[in-house]
Amino acid sequence: MADLDLVIRSGTVVDGTGAPARTADVAVRDGSIVEIGSVDARGARTIDADGLLVTPGWVDIHTHYDGQATWDDRLQPSSWHGVTTVVMGNCGVGFAPVHDRDHQALVELMEGVEDIPGTALYEGLSWEWESFAEYLDAIDARPHDIDVAAQVPHGALRLYVMGERGSQGLPATDDDIAAMGRIAREAVAAGALGFTTSRTKNHRTSTGAYTPTLRAEAAELVGIAAEIGRGGAGVLQVVSDFESPHDEQVMLHDMMAASGRPLSLSLAQAHSAGGGWRGMLALIDRMHAEGLQMRAQVAVRPIGVLLGLQATINPLAASATYRAVAAELPELAARAARLARADVREAVLAELAQQRQNPMLAYEQMFPIAEHPDYEPPADASLAAIAARAGVTPAELLYDELLRDEGRALVYAPIINYANGNLDHVAEMLQHPWCVPGLSDGGAHVGTICDASFPTTLLQHWGRDRARGTLPIELLVARQCRATAEAVGLCDRGLLAPGLRADVNVIDLERLSLDAPTMAFDLPAGGKRLLQRAHGYRHTFVNGTETYRDGEATGECPGRLVRGAKTTP
After folding, report:
1. pLDDT value at residue 361
2. Which of 55, 210, 340, 368 has its CA 20 to 30 A from that of 204?
3. Predicted TM-score of the model (pTM)
4. Which one is the CATH code of 4-56+503-553: 3.10.520.10, 2.30.40.10, 3.10.400.10, 2.40.37.10?
């Protein structure tokens, strides 16, 4: 009889520690790794991994599957990309705790901040919970293809305690702060990984109102953090515009000092201040010098909007002629055929010519998407540059590009993290000791952004393809596995080591690639979402059970809710 459930033999093992890759076998029994090296024992199943990478499963700590995880067993697209654990509840948005009166407000908040169709949320959410503990129970009751962890969102917490005053952004009283702190601490005790908040003007509800947490005063955030700290567990996550950098930095310092808990913040290169991110890294270094644990979650490529006739942002919608055609012909192929007529094309282009100040029409920052996308495109690949070489206007080229594939084509427009037209700054971030990959927003921005494929880009682009210089595979795997896991306290995963969870990827690095994003209409109520497939993931295991083989689901759903921090076995 076999002594082991699984043996992955002769793979190139990159174990997540940052140590050099080595050829070794990986043995699995009862969902755990039991041996790495030369394994003599037999396995009930053996995989020949000669010539393939064997890594821990990716840990993605910045997603928004808060709704999808309640109705869907498969947390795609993340699970297509070797991700075996996701953390949701980021940016202060989520669906618990909640009073019945606030269902609509939380849907509008998630719809606006994270571009998830409200119709899908109204149809898909059961609202069988009030407290955060009850919400966790609802997640726990449904098996998933990957593990799921949750955080307490400040937006929902503020509405729950303060009602209309909270949604209006009014200051919290001492009693409000005490109540929010107590509920957040209880949520962490019930299994939440931590507490998250948003302080950016980019986050608005679907009604156009700012997120309820935007103007929360320092006393509120420090008070909640301090109460969480009294429980001795939990992490803190913040996204902010840092409009008052000194005050914000003092607040972050005070949140960590009062709580003793680690904190992570979102960090990217802004187009308007291309070097401002270095100041935040300097802040993080100073915090660590004081013994305070702060990390930056960074994006591994530009954060880019996808433009298209089916997308949330459709550049042609600025034309009255286009809008009339769309109203008459809702079916996409018929609409694209009408738009291809010379007279319609001429009318739409004439109207677009009057929209020169429209930020959606920055042609120097628009790029066609190939069958296998390039996420570090050169300036001469932009629509503006291609149009100049072809002797046509950028608007003409954009028009024709959007009509490709019967109107299903998309155009890529980097809006963050690409101020210099390259990713040299990301290389610097990825090598900083306190930066971890994040910001994929898996499950969110479903009509605008498709960045759940970040982990695949990390390995493919940074580990193999980048013309301006690659980074060591060992570093990249360590960042996407162990560093992310440690950032949220999940120290039972992220490494290939005896005693840890058998979350494992077997990857054909030579074949690793991304398809172009496509639009699907498979959310509840027929809601749309952008999806992106990958090639090269030969096997993905969650807790020792194979969930994906050559990119296709096996039908197994061993993923469960992760309740609270985990220590290294």
Report:
1. 65
2. 368
3. 0.97
4. 2.30.40.10
